């Protein structure tokens, strides 16, 4: 039987390429992670939207 590890929100935000998609993991307050899988076009759009908020 495999060891069970608790899933917590601790740890860095990360983005990794897995095959044709980019998987983004964002730690959440209260524990857990938001995991989003996006393709290259969606990642570019997300970058542009976040950049407009930071610049604006």
Automatic annotation (TrEMBL):
Q: Which domain of life is it from?
A: Bacteria
From the Swiss-Prot or TrEMBL record, give the protein name.
DUF3117 domain-containing protein
């Amino acid at each position: 039987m495999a060891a069970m590890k608790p899933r917590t929100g601790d740890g860095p935000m990360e983005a990794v390429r897995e095959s044709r998609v980019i998987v983004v993991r964002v730690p959440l307050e209260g524990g857990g992670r938001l995991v989003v899988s996006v393709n290259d076009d969606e990642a570019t759009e997300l970058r542009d939207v976040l950049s407009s908020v930071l610049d604006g």
